[in-house]
């Protein structure tokens, strides 16, 4: 066992996969000598060179399309989009092309592509650099979606994503990069569609994603001392979504809070809540609570940003409400 | 050829000094921890914004970028309201909602800084179409960097402007880098201006560290636009002194020699030398001007630091007209929905009182 950060976990996964399979090519803005905007690709360009780790012009739609072209002609590209906000610039190639090309072609080609991007508020980066837009991609059939929280999950899921033949949207959180966690020695892969119970409990289920897993665990700790036992379930992937694990927890507790940093309306919580309502209708003892980013753009100034983005206290409040 | 009169020359020098002092202050406040987020500074590039905006009137429009403080000051922006915004205060231009990357002053035709590379180009082109459709005589000047010229929207915008002969001046501030990627590594051309031909517009190159050269070429472009002769792509060769933003030392991807060579071409001492040599100003007058500029920035900083931060719930305003979005239950006052706002989703899940 050793302790690494989320940043290291992603970096190690990329390095090991680049070394393993010569068809893997990374493309993105400032991922080369600069080592990435969040210093996640540090050292990779020095080790593998331009042919494997290629800085691109600022052309998100083009970059994602180039990735797609590499993918359907036999390579295995990993595309980095610096902030998830900029996936908006790339929506044609992602949504109209990559997500549909296998289906539209009757299964002739498969875009073996991973698009890594970065979500999250908390750094006073304002409305165009703080969004968590992963739910958009759930709405479009054709992507597998990972949104891991811990170093162990990031590394295991990224390696699995790179080896997967379907296109993957892979969401990392800017505020989680410095978070630490234990990882085993040797290699591990994590299957998509397998949730992880991060903390066992009996009274309330909290389904949390990405950075919100850490906030949910901190909230659970606090609530434990107040006599409320919280189970924290991290779905880890949104497509496919492990409803079995979530439903098993909800059937045990009868109460559920869903915490996801995307905006509340039409967010991840909306989909999971609908499925829980259907799958666990007879087991629910309270309305399903959702905690997410308020339905306004994310403001710059810290007092407002901290209010808009979900906090540990917001989770505590929602759990108490569900537990009443 | 446009030759600025003495008054305008002094004003251009003052504006460049003001931008430099503003950025120095931001750097100081940032490193002192008084500032959240990140700020992309304009020091080194002052001549471009100042020479460009000097060719415009108050009624004309500009679009700006992530590196936008200079454009805003050059177009007449209030440095106190700007600094208050960068420091996230309620008294800032955007009530603290925007910060450094989103400063906006509609009353001065400043259609916003922008966090999205090339985000301002299509809307600036739209402002140009408005001027043409209404015959308002206004000109729009879009500022953007060399890296921005690789975005699809750059090409889409210039094509429409060329096709419809819009009164827009596209000012490329070629500082040689998009973050860490040098121009040689992001495009196969050396002069961005050559792209003008592909869109049927005039292309020109200015020394972006010479405010008089920028002014002359921008004025020619603005006059062409006002005469209905269509858009111009004006490339200004310049350099940013700092890293990409405060906090990036900017040393990983460029040499000290390169930075020093550009510092030797600093636009401010060059303009000072010009006004002294041509007898437009005396040394004493230049010193007084500098002292006034410094005092203005000190006053802006003091005003900003004394200004209140916004209350959390102020985040709920300004989304729609006459509407306050739903706030957080359990934290502070409830937001609630404005009467008659008619949003079915009022409440999301969190704001809806339980039956
Ligand atoms: C759509 C989009 N992609 C990427 C970024 C990240 N980014 C911010 S500034 C920048 C470089 C811009 O380079 P350039 O246009 O030359 O302007 P400069 O910073 O040199 O003034 C990048 C890549 C962004 N803000 N928006
Ligand atoms: Mg540049």
Please describe what this structure looks like:
The complex is a heterodimer of chains A (324) and B (355). Helix content of chain A is 37%, strand content 21%. Chain A is α/β, with parallel strands linked by helices and 324 residues long. Chain A has 2 domains: 2-183, Rossmann fold (3-Layer(aba) Sandwich); 196-323, Rossmann fold, CATH 3.40.50. A 7-stranded mixed sheet of chain A has the order 3-2-4-5-7-6-12, sandwiched between helices. The N and C termini of chain A lie far apart (41 Å). Chain B is α/β, with parallel strands linked by helices. Chain B has 2 domains: 6-306, Rossmann fold (3-Layer(aba) Sandwich); 312-355, no CATH class. Chain B is 40% helix and 9% strand. Chain B is built from 12 helices and 7 strands. In chain B, the strands form 2 sheets. A 5-stranded parallel sheet of chain B has the order 1-2-3-7-6, with helices on both faces. In chain B, strands 4-5 form a two-stranded antiparallel sheet. The radius of gyration of chain B is 22 Å and the shape is globular. Chain B starts with 5 loop residues before the first helix and ends in a 49-residue tail after the last helix. The model of chain B is unreliable at 333-355 (pLDDT under 50). Thiamine diphosphate sits between chains B (66-67, 115-117, 144-148, 175, 177-179) and A (29, 58, 60, 82, 86, 89).
């Amino acid at each position: 066992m050793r302790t690494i950060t989320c940043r290291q976990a992603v970096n190690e996964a990329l390095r090991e996969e680049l070394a393993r399979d010569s068809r893997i090519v990374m493309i993105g803005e400032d991922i080369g000598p600069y080592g990435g905007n969040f210093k996640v690709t540090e050292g990779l360009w020095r080790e593998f060179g331009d042919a494997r780790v290629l800085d691109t012009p600022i052309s998100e739609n083009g970059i994602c399309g180039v990735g797609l072209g590499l993918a359907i002609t036999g390579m295995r590209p990993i595309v980095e989009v610096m902030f998830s906000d900029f996936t908006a610039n790339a929506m044609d190639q992602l949504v109209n092309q990559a997500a549909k090309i296998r289906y539209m072609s009757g299964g002739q080609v498969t875009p073996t592509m991973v698009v890594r991007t970065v979500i999250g508020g908390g750094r006073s980066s304002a409305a165009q650099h703080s969004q968590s837009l992963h739910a958009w991609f759930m709405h479009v059939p054709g992507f597998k979606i990972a949104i891991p929280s811990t170093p162990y999950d990031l590394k295991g899921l990224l390696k699995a994503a790179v080896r997967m033949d379907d296109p993957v949207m892979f969401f990392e959180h800017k505020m989680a990069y410095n978070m630490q966690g234990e990882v085993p020695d040797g290699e591990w892969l994590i299957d998509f569609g397998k949730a992880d119970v991060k903390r066992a409990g009996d009274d309330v289920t909290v389904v949390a994603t990405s950075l919100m897993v850490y906030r949910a665990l901190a909230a659970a700790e606090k609530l434990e001392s107040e006599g409320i036992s919280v189970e924290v379930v991290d779905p880890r992937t949104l497509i496919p979504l492990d409803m079995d694990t979530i439903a098993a927890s909800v059937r045990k507790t009868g109460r559920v809070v869903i915490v996801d940093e995307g905006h509340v309306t039409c967010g991840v919580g909306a989909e999971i809540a609908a499925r829980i309502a259907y799958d666990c209708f007879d087991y629910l003892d309270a309305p399903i609570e959702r905690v997410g980013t308020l339905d306004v753009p994310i403001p710059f100034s810290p007092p407002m940003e901290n209010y808009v983005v979900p906090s540990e206290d917001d989770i505590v409040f929602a759990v108490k409400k569900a537990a009443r | 050829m446009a030759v600025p009169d003495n008054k305008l020359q002094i004003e251009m020098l003052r504006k460049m000094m003001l931008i430099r002092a503003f950025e120095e202050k931001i750097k100081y406040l940032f490193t002192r921890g008084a500032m959240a987020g990140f700020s992309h500074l304009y020091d080194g590039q002052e001549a471009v914004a100042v020479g460009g905006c000097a060719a415009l009137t108050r009624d004309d429009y500009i679009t700006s970028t992530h590196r936008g403080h200079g454009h805003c000051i050059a177009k007449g922006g209030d440095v106190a309201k700007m600094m208050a915004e960068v420091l996230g205060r309620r008294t800032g231009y955007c009530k603290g909602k925007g910060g450094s990357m989103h400063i906006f002053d509609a009353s001065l035709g400043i259609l916003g800084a922008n966090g999205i590379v090339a985000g301002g180009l299509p809307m600036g082109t739209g402002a140009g179409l408005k001027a043409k459709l209404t015959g308002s005589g206004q000109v729009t000047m879009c500022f953007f960097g060399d890296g921005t010229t690789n975005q699809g929207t750059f090409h889409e915008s210039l094509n429409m402007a060329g096709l419809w002969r819009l009164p827009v001046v596209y000012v490329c501030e070629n500082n040689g880098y998009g973050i860490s990627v040098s121009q040689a590594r992001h495009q196969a051309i050396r002069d961005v201006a050559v792209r003008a031909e592909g869109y049927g517009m005039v292309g020109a190159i200015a020394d972006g560290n010479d405010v008089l050269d920028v002014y002359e070429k921008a004025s020619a472009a603005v006059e062409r636009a006002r005469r209905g002769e269509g858009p111009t792509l004006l490339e200004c060769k310049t350099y940013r002194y700092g890293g990409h933003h405060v906090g990036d030392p900017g040393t990983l991807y460029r040499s000290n020699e390169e930075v020093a060579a550009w510092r030797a071409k600093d636009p401010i001492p060059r303009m000072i030398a010009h006004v002294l040599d041509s007898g437009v100003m005396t040394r004493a007058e230049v010193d007084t001007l500098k002292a006034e500029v410094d005092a203005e920035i000190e006053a802006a900083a003091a005003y900003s630091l004394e200004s209140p931060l916004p209350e959390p719930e102020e985040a709920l305003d300004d989304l729609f007209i006459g509407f306050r979005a739903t706030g957080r239950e359990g934290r502070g006052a409830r937001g609630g929905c404005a009467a008659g706002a008619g949003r079915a989703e009022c409440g999301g899940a969190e704001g809806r009182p339980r039956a």
